[in-house]
Amino acid sequence: MTDAVVDRVRSAVAAVTDPELRRPLGELDMVREIAVREGVAEVGIALTIVGCPAADRIERDVRAAAASVDGVSRVEVAVGVMSPDERRALTERLRGGRAAREMPFGPDSLTRVIAVTSGKGGVGKSTITANLAVALAARGLRVGLVDADVHGFSIPGLLGLVDDDGLPPAPTRLDDLILPPVAYGVKVISIGMFLRRPGEDAAGAVAWRGPMLHRTVQQFLTDVYFGDLDVLLLDMPPGTGDVAISVGQLLPHADVLVVTTPQAAAADVAVRSGLVARQTGQNPVGVIENMAAMVLPDGTTLDLFGSGGGEAVARALSSDGTDVPLLASVPLSTALRTGGDDGRPVVLANPDDAASVAINAAAGALATRPRGLSGRALPIRLR
Prior knowledge:
By secondary structure, the chain is of the alpha/beta class.
């Protein structure tokens, strides 16, 4: 009877998911000795590193899983740490045969890569990107988000990945792999997670030229462990500068989503960002117009930034015969703004808001266009 209880405890504990790696402890070889004596389950687990930020949650989930087994009245959890050899074997297994620093999002990848860009700053591109990521994850897709706007990073704050001082968490490092924090089901990486904290030698600002920007974006794409993703979103800096060129070189097969406001000043330069992306081989797939007209409580309409910009951008990018649709026109919204300030995306916090409805419509359009297998090699090796 005891052996059967031990087996059930082991199965329950092995099914617990590591919150950072998003895989079961049994699959990660993190379960150690298990014994049951007079109703007391003694469970051993090995964390990936000393000071693992998910340690308390893992121990709590393991304790709850073991306690749920019939025949267990009390649980004692012994927490250890993997040896260097065990950790090395784990990182190799997580890479799935890829060499260190090898690009996992190449042309043969099943992950759809979408770079969200704009011609100028201040159009709400990051807010749209964060909410799109959360809306896609809410549809059951596995979503990653790279905050490639290195100088003006804002994704951690928009997704609530900040502490009481407004600082984003430092990612966990597993040897040469970086484990991205998760918010609302989205795996997120940002340069803000690597800047020094107040009181240290450097301030939280970035003053880099092209080569350092290129290496940072490349490291985000190669060294961060996102696992198997359906969609990887990149929040691009505005314009067509160094980062846009680097992403064009690293991900020439990526789709591009252009964000603009209705006014001509934003729409004209937004067209350029789409044209430059196309020159690198990337594929503009849609336009989102932000800060469009809103309906006031008395039923009147306020078009603070004019109208027609999104349609103009879509029309200009479709001029060569390629269909680049206007996916959504997102109205001005207090809820959208306050959600960003509070780190609670409006698509979840206020799904009936007009901005939420529009963003969800864009997410639905993007979710129905997964990457296909046509023209790409399957990951099969002959032996």
